Amino acid sequence: MSDIQPTPAQEEGTTTTVITATTHLTLPAHPVPLTYDELNPRSKPVEFLGPIGTGCISILAPLFTYIFFYTCNDAVGCTPTTVSGWKYAWSLVGNFPSEAGYLWEWKSFAVYSGWYAYCIACWKFLPGDKIQGNLLRDGTRKTYKMNGLYTLLLTLGLSLGVLLNPGGIELFTWLYDHWVPLVSSSLVMATFQALWVYGYSYFNGELLALGGNSGNFFYDFFMGRPLNPHPPLFPSFDIKTFNEVRPGMILWLLLNISCACEQYLRLGTITDSMWVVILFEGWYTIDCLIQEHTILNQMDITTDGFGYMLSMGDLTWVPFTYGLQARFLAFKPVHMGPVWTTVVVAIELAGNYVFRQANNEKGNFRAGKNPKKLEYMTTERGTKLLTSGWWGRSRHPNYFGDWLMALGWCLPTGFSTPLTYYYIIYFVILLVHRQMRDDEACRHKYGKDWDRYCEKVPYKIIPYVY
Ligand code: NDP
């Protein structure tokens, strides 16, 4: 059975705070209810170069997570520049001198599973607003419990308790010391979830993602067949939104703290570069959880299915590759000095300003508020599009701010290796591809109104440049 929650009218009498996500979907008037097949038409396997592309990414993305470790660690340095260096790095795979590089360890798997279970318990038992998601194709809405921020605050409080206790700093380096087995554990979890939701979606009659129902396993497994999967008997637990900002994002912050502890134990101090990285990336996580409800309007939630792209991305890629800068600084400290620190802080603050202003302008506007009295155009679909402020300067100003912040996370690692800059290169690819997907989706949604908008706002991401 579908896990769709009742409409607002049906929910009368509820005692929780109910807020409704704001992106609108105009449903065609159907005199008779659509059948399952009509609601879930076959998709064309065209994204990411089709099944071959999605198959390759499914293999390469986890592989790169391991490569980032084995080519950048205190045994080989970062990164090998000679053939013998690369051979040595390769020889360490499965043969690493410490547990940090073991490919598998049951203890780490138990800890990772415990962490995931803890996040579920926080979702279940901590208080949180009930927020209604966007209108779905079948005319219903799902209700989401939003308490990621409380999960984060509890976790940070517990972490502080550990750190302030004698031996706490040493204990916290456990994560740094079990990096690869934790990567493997998260991959097992991500693969299991993606396989399970794929298989289960054939039996429970749930709503499918329009882009993940091609009939080709390699494509649908990656893109995500079900739109809003949940475990059997727990319809209120939405696996996709849960994974989006909790077990991966918060773990990323904990991994960064663990790297800072490692550096402290080695140096007796924490360098300015490490402070900058953990504070900026930490703030990104905190900010994301403060704004948790806004994910309901993101493409991942409204459009994409839940498959390996999201399970692996959320659980493995985000914490373990976004944590590369801090891990590098743990064994290769960089002292930036006041001038370089000021430059990096200025870039970060500029990025944060654009990111937050742009997201606030759209968030407020979609919530029916327009405090800056920004200009907008009305579309035939009924939805309005901002044409001034940040959304008048480019069609994705928030991506530009996000990328500038990413640059601020990489610069503190200095210039001894290109590897720690992988993030800004990967992020350009991700954001440009995402912009193309969103543009396509908006053209589909808004038709010629979107062309009118593009004429008014010709720049895609960087105002006056691209
Ligand atoms: P956006 O926040 O840019 O949202 C795109 C949607 O906004 C469109 O589909 C459209 O939906 C609406 N929209 C577009 N133009 C306008 C306009 N002029 N006025 C009002 N609404 C408009 O994209 P994402 O959901 O991709 O990203 C959300 C945030 O997440 C971004 O800040 C991004 O940087 C970040 N992000 C971070 C990642 C990471 O790994 N760090 C990965 C991906 C995203 P509609 O009209 O239906 O409302």
From TrEMBL:
<keyword id="KW-0756">Sterol biosynthesis</keyword>
<keyword id="KW-0472">Membrane</keyword>
<keyword id="KW-0521">NADP</keyword>
<keyword id="KW-0560">Oxidoreductase</keyword>
<keyword id="KW-0443">Lipid metabolism</keyword>
<dbReference type="GO" id="GO:0005789">
    <property type="term" value="C:endoplasmic reticulum membrane"/>
</dbReference>
<comment type="pathway">
    <text>Steroid biosynthesis; zymosterol biosynthesis; zymosterol from lanosterol: step 2/6.</text>
</comment>
<feature type="transmembrane region" description="Helical">
    <location>
        <begin position="48"/>
        <end position="69"/>
    </location>
</feature>
<dbReference type="InterPro" id="IPR018083">
    <property type="entry name" value="Sterol_reductase_CS"/>
</dbReference>
<dbReference type="Pfam" id="PF01222">
    <property type="entry name" value="ERG4_ERG24"/>
</dbReference>
<keyword id="KW-0752">Steroid biosynthesis</keyword>
<keyword id="KW-0812">Transmembrane</keyword>
<feature type="transmembrane region" description="Helical">
    <location>
        <begin position="403"/>
        <end position="429"/>
    </location>
</feature>
<keyword id="KW-0444">Lipid biosynthesis</keyword>
<feature type="transmembrane region" description="Helical">
    <location>
        <begin position="337"/>
        <end position="355"/>
    </location>
</feature>
<keyword id="KW-1133">Transmembrane helix</keyword>
<comment type="similarity">
    <text>Belongs to the ERG4/ERG24 family.</text>
</comment>
<dbReference type="GO" id="GO:0006696">
    <property type="term" value="P:ergosterol biosynthetic process"/>
</dbReference>
<protein>
    <recommendedName>
        <fullName>Delta(14)-sterol reductase ERG24</fullName>
        <ecNumber>1.3.1.70</ecNumber>
    </recommendedName>
</protein>
<feature type="transmembrane region" description="Helical">
    <location>
        <begin position="179"/>
        <end position="198"/>
    </location>
</feature>
<dbReference type="GO" id="GO:0050613">
    <property type="term" value="F:Delta14-sterol reductase activity"/>
</dbReference>
<keyword id="KW-1207">Sterol metabolism</keyword>
<dbReference type="InterPro" id="IPR001171">
    <property type="entry name" value="ERG24_DHCR-like"/>
</dbReference>
<keyword id="KW-0753">Steroid metabolism</keyword>
<feature type="transmembrane region" description="Helical">
    <location>
        <begin position="147"/>
        <end position="167"/>
    </location>
</feature>
